[in-house]
Records
---
Amino acid sequence: MSIEYYLLLIPLGFAVGTYGTLIGAGGGFILIPLLLFLYPTEDIRIITSISLAVIFCNAFSGTIAYGRMGRIDYKSGLLLAAATVPGAVVGVLTTDFLPRQLFNILLGVMMVGGALFIFISPVRRESKKKNPIHAGFSRRIVEKDGSEHRFAYNLPLGVGVSGITGYISSLFGIGGGIIHVPLLSRALHFPVHVATATSHFVLAIMALTATIVNIAGGEFQHGFWRTVCLSVGVLLGAQVGARLSNKIKGPWIIRALALALAIVGVRLIITV
């Protein structure tokens, strides 16, 4: 492949990083289908290893940006991230057992299902209906601009689903944000902006774990330069996406996630 070809991956990474950080999904659900279309004969394990490494760079950059805003719930993030680690390791090791065609179908169905869940489930109105502090694990987050968020959630539920998320996201190389953001905002009652920021923090830890497993297995070296070019783009795009999140209301971030999931999922299914 020529140098020009690799350089074209940088703007692609920038777009993925911007949108992925904006909606807190890491961008893997966009990157994996793109890699599948760009490399139709490439081994699935190599494609997922590239995606997970790029997701780590995106999530790490986004975490820094959101951390400066004071939006990350670090305590909850560490607890949920710890639950994703075992699943992430197992997910990486079982990717080889999925034939590519089945991989595409399962990924597409999962994305469409996630989009339907987001569209059907009611939008939580944070300003009018406060989550009672006695309802579970109580949290108080104060952003740098003074905005205060008080909420509570079912910690065992969050930990349990996070373990499953770690497995699914590493198996498909999508990072898990498309599962975690709806989970945090809808099922666990996180304010949307706190959910997207905390999701990025969890993604960084989970994707790093999966990438270390891929490096140890020797898969990562086959996509090294593609990973570098895409990562340069996402590191820049993540900063832009975090800034844009200040200008877009929470419900629109969730709707954007659902729309993107539906489009990419249908595309994957019909191309099989």
Note: The CA atoms of residues 133 and 144 lie 22 Å apart.
---
Amino acid sequence: MFDQQQALMAAIFQQGDETERATSSSQFEGPGLAIYQKNLLASATRALQISFPTILQLIGEDVFEYATQQLLNTSPPSHGDWGLWGQDFPKLLNSIEVLQSYPFVPDSARLDFALHKLARQCDQTVKLESFNLLADWPLEKLQLVLNTNLVMMNSDYPIVDLYGLHENGHKQGSDPLLRSLVQQKLKDGTGQKALLYRPHYKAKVRELDEAEYYWLTLIQLGVSMGTAMDAMTSKGFKDFSLETWLPTALQDKLITGLKSA
């Protein structure tokens, strides 16, 4: 019985591969198997549309469904939670011939999936009492604790603007000016650094400038606040203000506390 179930599952997932279908047991051929396969593709497509909303709008439903079929063939789900499936989708999109003229699509997919995963993480609490250390310790002896859910991305393409464009378009209709600006950035080869964070229950994304990206990288490496501030000055980011950044970082839960170095 178990062997038959395994064979049936294999036959269903082999729907896009002629060679593998030819080697499948003939007992599963016919309209019944086709129904299973159609339902599987529909479920898989819907799951990926939820995880990759920007990509759905970028490439359209037909190409999206084709890409979903390819992912089912090459990286079928290994568990029952569709929301965990899709890690290999960005890499697969890079291999689809019709998308070769749109090299920004895989990076946009990585952002989509990172946001999707972030939305599923447990919320983290900020330990405000830990900031009492500021009264007794020098900055050279203190480290900021980053929220472990925080994600930073660096792309050669304007992935934050692409995400914002299609999120805005989904909610309110296309903004011609914003679309024009994004198209110009793509033409000019303008990249963006992205920060993915979740201040409360909704995952968000915004662009990082060079200064904040460098600052967060230093904090992520465990550099003390004092040493990090010195490094910022040496790097030329003299306008970066810890006093201005810290309250916003606490509000957005970019950091969850302070500890001695």
Note: Strands lie at 142-146, 151-155, 192-197, 204-208, 255-260.
---
Amino acid sequence: MGSRSSSGSPVEVVTSAGKLSGEISDGLKVFRGVPFAAPPIGALRFKAPQPVEPWEGVRSATEFAASPMQPQGQLAAGPVNEDCLYLNIWAPLADGPHPVLVWIFGGGEIKGSPSDALYDGSNLAARGIVVVNLTYRLGSLGFLKVDHLLGNDYIGSGNNALLDIAAALDWVQAEISAFGGDPGRVTIAGESAGAKNTCSMLGLEAARGKFHGAIVESVRYESTFTPEQAEDNTATMLRALGIDPGNAEELLTVEAAELIAAEKALTTPAEPFLWRPVKDGIVFERTGLEAIRAGRAKEIRLLIGNNLHEYDLFAIAAPLTEDPTAKQMSYVDSQTVADQINTTYQQHFPQLSDSERRLRLMTSQEWWIPALRMVEAQDDIGGAVWMYRFDWAPANCKLPVRACHMMELPFVFGTYDSSVEGRYLSGDSTDRPALAKAMGDAWAAFISGRNPGDGLGIEWPCYGAEHRFVMVFNTALELLTDPESDERQLWDGYTLPTV
């Protein structure tokens, strides 16, 4: 299951802004570089996304648009540009209405691209799904709070990335039926920062009612800024740019490349995540977990999980030579708690080497426990939620990793051979096609509004406090009951910090 070649046959669709010309690719309608909001440039920099300007004639939609601004050599596919609010569509040729998947890429809120071949929607679309792959503003362009300096026209600027995603969901509601999609069956999904942004949509009023399911892959703790913290972050950026706060309007004219350079200079191994949504009480009031606990997601079907050895990927660049500190552990808010957790893991896992124990602890506190908290909260309010775990480890991989962060993506999209990341991560294991088929079929069943187990031909019950069912994706599929229950209970006494 790889990338699908284009036949070049044209296909046209009429939207409310004008006519688009895409192309036929192996039985699919494919549209690339479709605008869902006005270019956020010039006077619109740092402002909420604005409606698309209509166009005359037929607009070509056969080429990907530029990736959002980010440091060169990151995850961007092709050129980068501040003018980036576009989406891509893969749709079956058959008449719909088909269920819709809206994919939100990850990359720590500073990098990534929807045009990356890793996220090619062909294989999922071939299962009868309209796949939409969107862009949003990254870094300071998506998260810099400036309303306190520039006035009310910039209210919500600290959450512009989230508002971009919500604007794309508005576009889907208004336009996707023209592409054969069903606006009443929309699932949003993402991995890593994309998963965090997926969760944020649960608590964002602007996105409410615009999707009906959510797939959350490897979400880390949903850290946010208070308005005061976000304003401190803005002050740091101004200093890095050499701009006096009294002349903050210079932010509107500084070259975008200068903004990215300043961000890069401020991003260090000790401070890798400079950007967070702002809980401003206006645009963004609740994290995904808080929204679930408040009952706002009860009618939204959830599929949530993580990979068995998430931290392996990060340990390549930053080996854990000492026990993790509170600064390294997103899930805790004091060194005292970090010391307690380290001691608990030492006592509970005496058979593990120091390195393996630390890897296990970091994977659990960064990904598994946050995922569990969300799953448990959805079950507590009576909502439907399924949980998975990805355990598969590659053979002859170019990286010294097991089932690490990102590893599931080439199998969800079936791009293990057709994308650079897929080939790099998955090695040459002969069981890759079967694993990709299983994950693609399960995800497609969920997106279609069915039990994900229907795609696998096996029973996959919802997660519940009584049995805690988890589907494990590996060389063979396995439905487990409360896996690693003893380790899970180690965390029962710890709660998420408030920010």
Note: The longest helix spans residues 354-380.
---
Amino acid sequence: MRAAVVGGLIFFHTARIFDPLDFYVKDQPPNLPLTLFVFFAGLWGMPLLFVVSGLGAWYSLRSRTATGFVRERLARLLVPFLVGLLLVVPPQVYYRLRFQGQDPGSYWQFYGDFFQVHPGLKFPWLVRPDDPPDLFEPAHLWFLYFLLAYSLLLLPALLYLRGSGRQLLERLASFCARPWAIFLLALPVAVIEAALGTEESGGWNRYAFIPFLLYGFLFAADLRFGEAIRRHARAGLLVGVPAMLVLLGLGFYVSEVAGRDPAVAHDGWSVLWRFVKGIGAWAWIITIMGAAMSVVRRRASQPTPAVPHH
């Protein structure tokens, strides 16, 4: 599932060229089918990647101490983030400026300006770009940094759930095994998104990814979570499809008729739009993960062909 989502990001970011939102390079006029694809994939793609990363955190801690877990996270996340920040991101920003008709000067002059930053806390970021030139950004590598920061932030809670908090985990798993109860996990995400508003980080508020990461850890810790997701895969469509229709219709009304941006405005309709967004995202994740689990179960139940002896 991780490979599918990461591979799908290639198509997603290519499609971003043809939607009406700001991006590094744009084509005009916007393409409606690709815009709908971007909207649909953006609804569940990055949240699902955080869920899968939470699954990986459980298995990592199963064979590592807390110190070993921190070292593993730094090696797998911080190192590629820093390498990408030095080698991959600056050319993207440089050619975006040139595409938009600006003159950033020579690349090496721009490269020095890009890293003009100062300490500034906007969790989880610890630095802010100087203004001017206001060039520094992590581009698509924000995911690596967020995953690192949230993994370290949640580490005490993850260790607690693996140890003395096991009883709490089992009670939660028992509750989520009830019919439709697994959908209630959408509420923390929906409340965060509705209250705080959407940001540029993957089309979500940066704090909304914390529950997704924690959910993945819980799913690996107790099989009842996964079984509940598998059983409710089709039910997820009953929630996810209407949520998509509401998001499209309500989003059109708020943006085109009322003249507000539902991602950041705090009027009632915009807050409702973001709340439905959180509900819909979780429903689609249940559908996708549940379908994947059903496929794995069917393959596991098939008899292994006998190997002929010569």
Note: The first strand starts at residue 117 and ends at 122.
